[in-house]
Amino acid sequence: MNPKLRRPLVAGNWKMHGSRGEAGRLVGGLLAGAAGAGAAEVVICPAFVHLADVGRQLAGSPIALGAQDVCAEEPGAHTGEVAAAMLADIGCRYVIVGHSERRALYGEDDALVARKFLAARRHGLVPVLCVGETLAERDGGATAAVVLRQLDAALAAAGAGAFEQAVVAYEPVWAIGTGRTATPEQAQEVHALIRGRIGEKDARISASLRVLYGGSVKAGNALELFSMPDVDGGLIGGASLQAGEFLAICRAAGG
Ligand code: PGA
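That is the input. Now the predicted structure with 2-phosphoglycolic acid docked in place:
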């Protein structure tokens, strides 16, 4: 059995979805069911424009607020960007950095993602560092090399100590939004690799680091993924847009 020392975490990544009204109704549904959500820590990450409204709605609830991205720079002349200080100021506790859609569609490389990770930490936010290989990389036997390269960029920039207040999300690109999940064994193998890499630097931090799985997690497959020893919860896209489905995933994580 899995002696989980780490409190499971489930984060909903709403991506670029939802009107103001829809966001409000989704949060309402989550709050109505939150009491039955189990022991997992729950975070929701709406689009930037909804953060303040959703944050007000969540005030006093056990659900935490996160953002989907952050600028690597401090406040200043960066039209269109949002600084970590601004996210912290409106009540965000978490921020996703290096999501594969940012890497693939917006040209974010490991160096930029590492700088975003650092910006988040400077302002007391918990970065959720996303790593993961494409299908071609997996088929080419490069999964470990890709995941470690992505992890090492943040590790080299921030040091292992920064991971005491960070989360890593393993999200195989071929499993995101495709309905195709990694098998629990495939996830476990990469999660153990990630934990092991941090453990080479600091055993204590490695033991407490939460490593989430992301990629087509649903209520129906969450339990088998979350029962693996190094899977500490999930980063949930599509299924986080339905309150009932998301809460069922939270229950699966919180046991
Ligand atoms: P998905 O997305 O759950 O819709 O596959 C996960 C993610 O992109 O974080």
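The pocket of 2-phosphoglycolic acid is lined by residues 13, 171, 176-177, 214-217, 235-239 (CB under 6 Å).
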